[in-house]
Design goal:
alpha+beta; two-stranded antiparallel sheet
Length: about 150
């Protein structure tokens, strides 16, 4: 797979490994293409949700809206209170206030509330566009199911 592989190229690689004809578009009505696109999306989400150096953002400040809630964007998988340090390390610091993303809102688990009266600084795992995932020699292997016959 090329270093700058697109989602379409990745889908076509999987189709080829299963002996299927490549596609010119990710918008398709053929069952094979729809299945492979769904698999690529699933593997992409599963990979990114783990949190990597390229999709963890530290010390991000979020402000409450007029309803005293902090609304999170759909591209955020997970949130943790920030330690205030820019040093790489663990994403979660024991003893910290425990936050969770519930729907599209931030939830304070310790206080059992969606209400926030001040800014909150968090570390977040954020989904990035497929084309912005760093290419590695193993990238195509995580995209390919264990057996072409399983899908």
């Amino acid at each position: 797979m090329a270093a700058d592989a697109t989602k379409l190229e990745s889908v076509n690689e999987i189709l080829a490994s299963a002996g299927q004809v490549p596609t010119n578009s990710l918008i398709s009505t053929t069952p094979e293409v729809l299945t492979v696109v769904a698999l690529v999306d699933k593997y992409d989400r599963d990979l990114q949700a783990q949190g990597w150096h390229w999709n963890i953002e530290v010390n991000q400040t979020f402000s409450p809206n007029v309803s005293d809630e902090i609304v999170l964007t759909e591209d955020i998988f997970e949130v943790h209170e920030s330690s205030g340090s820019d040093e790489p390390g663990t994403l979660y610091w024991p003893g910290a206030v425990d936050y969770a993303k519930r729907g599209n809102r931030l939830y304070n688990v310790n206080a059992a509330t969606f209400t926030f009266t001040s800014d909150v600084t968090l570390n977040v795992i954020r989904r990035v566009a497929f084309e912005n995932i760093p290419s590695t020699p193993g990238r195509s292997s995580w995209l390919r199911p264990p057996s072409a016959t399983t899908w």
